[in-house]
Design brief:
This protein is α+β, with helices and mostly antiparallel strands and about 450 residues long. It has 3 domains: about 290 residues, no CATH class; about 100 residues, no CATH class; about 50 residues. It has 14 helices and 17 strands. The strands form 4 sheets. Strands 1, 2, 6, 7, 8, 11, 12, 13, 14 and 15 form a 10-stranded mixed sheet that branches. The protein is elongated. About 35% of the residues are buried. The mean pLDDT is about 95. The chain binds manganese (II) ion. The site of manganese (II) ion (MN) has 3 residues, from loops.
Length: about 450
């Protein structure tokens, strides 16, 4: 299989969390459980109704475009994508074809083709007897992001989807919850034989895999397709261009339909909607939009690396969870010292399950650095704070965790033990002092003291 090369392009849809829908003022609420509640004549496709563009939705996509370094269109329009299906009773989906809002850009080192805006369809549920339609979702603003076919592994595809989810959340434009269908991934998978005369930009026949509802299934489905297509090619067969579904239980893809070409959709500009000259619209002012961007995940990663020098694994925890990120930064600012910040980060990621006060953690770290408590003691104190609360110094006293770091007291203990055990190895001597002090002597200082004394 080493002669066969995998190429993947992704198409990712995400529902935007605007207050109202894309072309009407029905409420956009993904948590609504009663079917057909947030609907009106426009989003249910009545003839004679007029859609109106939701500026908030356009703004979100423009901000994303700037965040990924894409080119924002000067001119854009909406098109009708014609097809017949009960979940879109107008007979067409309003989408964008020739003039997407954003072109190019990149994310996670993956080049992007375009980002455009369209409307979501109704949700259909099928039983053996009936099909049900829920229009709460119909007309919800849906952005579609398409990558170039440049992804080389299943893992890279899943990583890209994870990073996009994070960016959408940072921009507060979508919750992008895959389990709730707020973010949906489709993968275009093709395989080619490296030994043929194909040049690098010629790809094998592409197969589109739909219904990928988790990052894990993105990865599994692509791996499955790579194997399926490779086996076909190795056996002298041909890959059929088609759309395939993903069966999570069986762990395999299955043929759904032979893929339409874009001309089957008879795209044409929607005459009911105004054209948008982005530059002339005040709300879309580039400077204002740029200034509204938060610090993005990749910038946060490099800042944490540069300013605090903490482990990549810890950085990822803070980048993925903004609450923990804020907490860590507060602690880091209070501690200043690089080594102490690293130490604090270790305790945050391995000992804290719930947030405690910044002051408490800073105090615990300072107590360790002053040699007042051991790392074992610090763990006990942190557990106690999370379970019942309390103040570090007080807890250390009550639990008898304060170490003896007083040099005179330690010197006395060392002298006693040396007198009682002439010629014994250092580890044994340290152990004897620990015993005498009921485990409260500072072991690091002890080690040092013994080394100094035995040197003389
Ligand atoms: Mn689409």
């Amino acid at each position: 299989m080493k002669d066969y090369i995998l190429t993947v392009g992704l198409e990712i849809h995400a529902e935007l969390k605007t207050r109202t829908k894309m072309f009407c003022d029905s409420k956009n609420d993904t948590n609504e459980t009663r079917p057909n509640t947030n609907i009106c004549p426009i989003c249910t496709g009545y003839p004679g109704t007029l859609p109106v563009i939701n500026k908030e939705a356009v703004k979100s996509v423009l901000r994303l475009g700037l965040a990924v370094g894409g080119e924002v269109a000067d001119y854009t329009e909406f098109d009708r994508k014609n097809y017949f299906y009960p979940d879109i009773p107008k007979g067409y989906q309003i989408s964008q074809y020739k003039y997407p809002l954003v072109t190019g850009g990149s994310l996670n080192d993956v080049a992007l083709t375009r980002i455009h805006l369209e409307e979501d369809t109704a949700k259909s549920t099928h039983t053996t007897e009936f099909s049900f339609l829920d229009f709460n979702r119909a007309g919800v603003p849906l952005m579609e992001l398409v990558t170039e076919p440049v992804i080389k592994t299943a893992e890279q595809a899943a990583d890209f989807a994870r990073e996009l989810q994070l960016v959408l959340r940072y921009l507060r434009m979508s919750d992008a919850n895959m389990e709730k269908g707020e973010m949906r991934v489709e993968a275009n998978v093709s395989v080619r034989n490296d030994q043929t005369t194909m040049t690098n930009d010629q790809l094998g026949t592409k197969v589109e895999v739909k219904n990928l509802n988790s990052f894990k299934s993105v990865e599994r489905a692509i791996k499955y397709e790579f194997e399926r297509q490779t086996k076909l090619l190795m056996g002298g067969g041909e890959v059929v261009q088609e759309t395939r579904g993903w069966n999570e239980e069986k762990g395999e893809t299955f043929s759904q339909r032979v893929k339409e070409e874009s001309h089957d959709y008879r795209y044409f500009p929607d005459p009911d909607l105004s054209k948008l000259f982005i530059k002339e619209i005040e709300e879309f002012d580039r400077g204002v939009l740029e200034a509204s961007l938060p610090e993005l995940p990749h910038n946060k990663r490099s800042r944490y690396k540069k300013d605090f020098g903490i482990k990549d694994q810890d950085i990822e925890v803070y980048v993925r969870d903004e609450e923990w990120g804020r907490f860590f930064e507060e602690v880091a600012v209070a501690l200043e010292d690089h080594e102490l910040v690293k130490l604090a980060s270790n305790y945050i990621t391995s000992d804290l399950k719930i947030p405690i006060s910044t002051e408490s953690l800073v105090e615990v770290i300072m107590m360790i650095s002053r040699g007042e408590i051991s790392s074992r003691g610090a763990k006990d104190i942190l557990r106690h704070i999370q379970e019942v609360g309390g103040e570090p110094k007080q807890i250390a006293k009550e639990k008898n965790l304060l170490q003896i770091s007083d040099i005179e007291v330690l010197n006395k203990l060392v002298a006693e033990v040396l007198k009682e055990n002439t010629g014994a190895p250092i580890q044994f001597l340290v152990g004897q002092v620990m015993k005498k002090s009921k485990n409260r002597a500072n072991p690091v200082m002890l080690q040092k003291l013994f080394l100094e004394m035995l040197d003389h």
